[in-house]
Amino acid sequence: MNESQMSPVKTLMCLLLLALSIGCEVTREGQPPVAKSEVGGSGSGGGAVARLGPKEIADSVVQSMDRTADPCQDFYRYACGTWLDTTKLPPDRPRWGRGFTEITERNLAVLRGILEDAARHKDGDADVAKVGDYYGACMDEEAVERKGVGPLEPLLAGIDAVKDATSLMAMAGKLQQVQVPVLFAPDFDADFKDPNVNIAHFFQGGIGLPDRDYYLKNDERSRTLRKEYEAHVARMLSLAGTPRPEARRQARDIIAFETKLAEVSLPKEDTRDPDKIYHKIDLAGLKTTAPTLPWDAFLEAAGYPGMDSINVGMPAFFEGMARAAAKAKPPVLRAYLRWHLLNAVSAELPKAFVDEHFAYFGKTLSGQKEIQPRWKRCVNATDEALGEILGRYFVEKQFPGDSKTIALGMIQEIESAF
After folding, report:
1. Nearest-angstrom CA–CA distance, 168 and 302
2. How many CA within 13 A on the CB side of residue 281?
3. Furthest-apart CA atoms within the chain: distance in Å
4. Coil, strand, or helix at residue 34?
5. Contact, 325 vs 171, CB < 8 A?
6. Is the dihedral angle over the CA atoms 231, 233, 234, 236 positive or is it negative?
7. What is the C-alpha separation between 348 and 334, in angstroms, rounded?
8. Is 194 helix (H, G, I), strand (E, B) or coil?
9. C-alpha angle with apex 323: 318 to 327, nearest 5 degrees?
10. Are strands 310-312 and 194-204 parallel, antiparallel or unpaired?
11. Nearest alpha carbon to residue 256 among 327, 202, 361, 359
């Protein structure tokens, strides 16, 4: 039976098997003992990256399966078993998947080649120069070490001037503008109930650990992670020039303030319910919800003066966050802002900051054995900052000719099968 004669049920089962095999994943906790995996993207950026055809993709799916498993009892094992048994988690990854992670690694290698070429040949094209300069600056470790925290001085000076609610919110706006997530998490996206209109969404945030539970759980592991987090915060502040005894005291105050924010945060399972995080009360409602915070000062500093359409995702959080900010003394708020600035830009700071950040968030929190090589980190940084430009060169290199026509045809065939 050829592909066009396959029954709809068989076609759907093949699609399900493909989807599950792509979703095969190993994590640090469940690492298989046998090492037999080809990890792409670790060679030179300019090398060729193999493109798999339909037969190669089909063969790789079959090779991932464990046909001794009963698909009616454990379909995941049936779809992924051999891959799980023969794949070792790379030391620079906290998890590894047989689909999107491998694709990401291949894409990193392609992007590296594009960026290294752009860094060498910047004449005549402003966009090429832009991505080449960004990547080149990221890779220039000597310059990074030489400048130290100097580039942060204007922001650090602004933090040192925080003394009341107005200066706090103005500084929070400036930090949010450069993607330093303090106090809460603003976003700009479609209105949940009117996708034709983009509005502001203000969500809970402002904590350094991944979730509220890290602050609130009282089991031994959670207590250990909090203790080590406090030590990490103190070391980061010390690296930036705060005397060690003062850095330790500030770290305690920062954790206490972040705990107040965690206490008034919604559990993560509730944040997955759109109805629980949609309260379009606009600016007037926000001012009523958290009246002690001068929201106009925040919006002005963040670059959105006069903005009015706002979904306040978690009104109770903003009430609690405003109370916590009002009770905190200015030195505590300054230390909190300083820490979050250092944390947000640690990847762009000298090696001591990079290593300290990885020691906690990479090793302790995620179980990652090694930090990713600098070229990977710089490729990701460039893609995050200039993704629209870099994406155009990626498409030109990887999807020439009739690639779009082929992809659309595949999508139409899958739609037809369903």
Report:
1. 12
2. 17
3. 76
4. coil
5. no
6. positive
7. 21
8. strand
9. 145
10. parallel
11. 327
> Are 17 and 66 spatial neighbours (Cβ–Cβ below 8 Å)?
no
Q: Find the DSSP H helices in 240-366.
A: 244-263, 282-289, 295-302, 315-327, 330-344, 351-357, 365-366
DSSP type of residue 344? H
Cα–Cα distance, 142 to 144 (Å, whole number): 5
Tokens of 382: 């460039």
Instruction: Return d(Cα 33, Cα 277) in angstroms, integer.
Output: 43
Task: Dig out the tokens for 321 from the structure.
Answer: 């966050």
Count CB-CB contacts under 10 A for residue 1.
7
Say which residue the tokens 């893609």 belong to: 383
- Give the integer Cα–Cα distance in Å for 303 and 155: 16
The residues, ordered by sequence, that sit 6+ positions from 269 with a Cβ below 8 Å of its Cβ are none
* pLDDT tens for the chain, residues 1 to 418: 444 455 555 555 555 555 555 567 666 554 333 333 333 333 333 334 445 566 676 777 788 888 888 888 888 888 888 888 877 777 777 776 776 777 888 889 999 999 999 988 877 788 899 999 999 999 999 999 999 999 999 999 999 999 999 999 999 999 999 999 999 999 989 999 988 999 999 999 999 999 999 999 999 999 999 999 999 999 999 999 999 999 999 999 999 999 999 999 999 999 999 999 999 998 999 999 999 999 999 999 999 888 889 999 999 999 999 999 999 999 999 999 999 999 999 999 999 999 999 999 998 988 888 899 999 999 999 999 999 999 999 888 888 778 888 888 888 988 888 8
Is the distance from CB of 278 to CB of 193 less than 8 angstroms?
yes
In this prediction, residue 51 carries a pLDDT of 55
**What token pair was written down for 370?**
């090694």
Give the H/E segment covering residue 417.
helix 403-417
The structure tokens 């090589």 sit at 373
Pick from 130, 105, 104: nearest CA to 118: 130
Residue that the structure tokens 């509730």 belong to: 270
Type of residue found at 324:
A
Within 161-218, residue ranges assigned H as helices are: 165-177, 213-216
Spatial contact of 104 and 96, defined as CB atoms under 8 Å apart = no
Nearest CA to 137 out of 125, 123, 151 is that of 151
Q: Which amino acid is at 356?
A: E
Strand order in the sheet with 310-312: 184-191, 194-204, 310-312
pTM for the whole structure: 0.80
